[in-house]
Amino acid sequence: MRVWIVFLLCLAGKALAAPAEEEPVIDEQVEVGSNPVQVETGEFDEAIEVVEDVAAENPCLNYHCKKGKVCELDDNNEPLCVCQDPLTCPAPVGEFEHVCGTDNKTYDSSCHFFATKCALEGTKKGHKLHLDYIGPCKYIAPCLENELGEFPLRMRDWLKNVMVTLYERDEDNNLLNEKQKLRVKKIFENEKRLQAGDHSLDLLVLDFEKNYNMYVFPVHWQFGQLDQHPSDGFLSHTELAPLRAPLIPMEHCTTSFFEACDADQDKYIALEEWANCFGIKEQDVDKDLIV
Ligand SMILES: [Ca+2]
Ligand SMILES: [Ca+2]
């Protein structure tokens, strides 16, 4: 339980032991704590390639390449994205910048990881390679069945607490939008709400039965936060990465949980699958709750 509180604080304070953001543009877009699970999204944006106004003097200046690629000019002075040489990545400041790939190899930083992945583009190996978690690769104990069942109890309690924390801190009205705020207000003001703390699993189970309605929105909200590239009602491995990558070293059931969540095993977690994983009843799954 403590781990969840630490995690919440880390996220909210943007002090997560994750690689420092390399693209300042991301930093500017994201207010501290405004969007806890997306704070590090830039680290995982494999799929986005955006072309903006091309500066006259240097066509590469405003030409954005996805992670692992850098802009170069071709023979016609046209910008194009090419794989970055890992040797040009900034040296990691510390071990906390290391990341572990799904190939179980430790990379010096996410820059090194994505540069390596880019070089493997088009190959089966490259297709299968993802950033698994933040930090050097380490032994992760197998997740036992009973532990797997405990995971969603803690996670949905944590999601609810994240929402309440955002609501409490939202003095400048930029952490939650008005519709989200209205929904969280109901949770926040409900006297029956289980306060954040170190609760036993029994109590978490009991609270979910008693105060089920308080959990429905936070579960939807988290899905909406992740489902943005593209926003299509399905979470890809890349979209899920900002949530799972920092979590895996602390919660050894993370991988098993999200794997099990993909009930039809199509590699995407649909909203219905996601909600079901957190015990939300089928009739309460509502894409309009993602506001
Ligand atoms: Ca999506
Ligand atoms: Ca699926």
Automatic annotation (TrEMBL):
Q: Which residues form the signal peptide?
A: 1-17
Annotated Gene Ontology MF terms? calcium ion binding; collagen binding; extracellular matrix binding
Spell out the GO cellular component terms annotated for this protein, sorted alphabetically and separated by semicolons: basement membrane; extracellular space
> InterPro entries from the xrefs?
EF-hand-dom_pair (IPR011992), EF_Hand_1_Ca_BS (IPR018247), Fol_N (IPR003645), Follistatin/Osteonectin_EGF (IPR015369), Kazal_dom (IPR002350), Kazal_dom_sf (IPR036058), Osteonectin_CS (IPR001999), SPARC/Testican_Ca-bd-dom (IPR019577)
Its main subcellular localisation, reduced to a broad class, is secreted
Q: Which domain of life is it from?
A: Eukaryota
Q: Which cysteines are disulphide-bonded?
A: C60-C71, C65-C81, C83-C118, C89-C111, C100-C137, C143-C253, C261-C277
CDD domains found in the cross-reference section = EFh_SPARC_SPARC, FSL_SPARC
Provide this UniProt record's keywords sorted from A to Z.
Basement membrane, Calcium, Copper, Disulfide bond, Extracellular matrix, Glycoprotein, Metal-binding, Secreted, Signal
Query: Where is the protein situated, by its record's location annotation?
Result: Secreted, Extracellular space, Extracellular matrix, Basement membrane
**Which residues belong to any copy of the Kazal-like domain?**
82-139
Listed Pfam families: FOLN, Kazal_2, SPARC_Ca_bdg
Q: What does this protein do?
A: Appears to regulate cell growth through interactions with the extracellular matrix and cytokines. Binds calcium and copper, several types of collagen, albumin, thrombospondin, PDGF and cell membranes. There are two calcium binding sites; an acidic domain that binds 5 to 8 Ca(2+) with a low affinity and an EF-hand loop that binds a Ca(2+) ion with a high affinity.
Task: Report the sequence similarity comment from the record.
Answer: Belongs to the SPARC family.
**What name has this protein been given in UniProt?**
SPARC
Which organism does this record belong to?
A: Ictalurus punctatus (Channel catfish)
- State which gene encodes it: sparc
